[in-house]
Amino acid sequence: MSAPALDVAAWASPWRRHSPGDKVLLSLGLVISALVLPPWPASLLVTLVALGLMLGPGRTPAHLLRRAARGPAAFIVLGTVTIAITWRTDGFGPTVTDESLGNAAQTLAHAIAGTSSVMLLAATTPMTDLLAWARRRGVPEAVVDVAGLTYRLLFVLLESIGEVRAAQTARLGYTTRRATLRSATTLTAATLTRAFDRSRRLEAGLAGRGFEGVMRTLADQRPSSRTFVAATLAMLAAVSAISLALPW
């Protein structure tokens, strides 16, 4: 199993040379714009800006973006459906009303815009850069270290899943529906067992090296760009002005 799609895109993105703080400002500004501005057309504008920056200057390959968006899209669709379907007030059973559809549409727009904004940061900034930036900005060491260990364990788990799945495939474990269900159950159990074993071995290894709660790593410090920050603020101002001037 390969690495996460957004992580692959982030390491290859030309925006990696920009300061993580500048990109956090851009992503956070888009998220706030999607939350506080009227949903129409602000959410649409934020989504278009985020996707345009990812596919344009960020040079995120479209196939990686589609692969990374499948998981969040599933959660968004499930959440929207539960909002659109309500229970009848005059009896039993589910129903769909104009009000529930309107609420579902607004939630869908906010969710897509916010997710696109966060994915813009994830697709252009490797996690190691974000962790180093967070440490320099005073985020508690324990939080940064836990995030870093979780990030590293993710790759270990992906490797384990790939190995088990390849062995199951070689043994015709996914040829029928019944075999697929049995293989998926075995894969889940094996992954959880390996994850627990890896975490215990990691804990023992850190204790053996005298780990005292701080795991220092080398990181390149990239200075903030005034041009990038100015362009970000101008873009956010433009999105706000258009959204307030053209409420749908």
Automatic annotation (TrEMBL):
Its main location: membrane. The chain crosses the membrane at residues 24-56, 68-87, 107-127, 228-246. InterPro entries: ABC/ECF_trnsptr_transmembrane, Cobalt_transport_CbiQ, ECF_CbiQ. Keywords: Cell membrane, Membrane, Transmembrane, Transmembrane helix. It holds the Pfam family CbiQ. It is found in: Cell membrane. It is a multi-pass membrane protein. This is Cobalt/nickel transport system permease protein. The lineage of its organism: Bacteria, Bacillati, Actinomycetota, Actinomycetes, Kineosporiales.
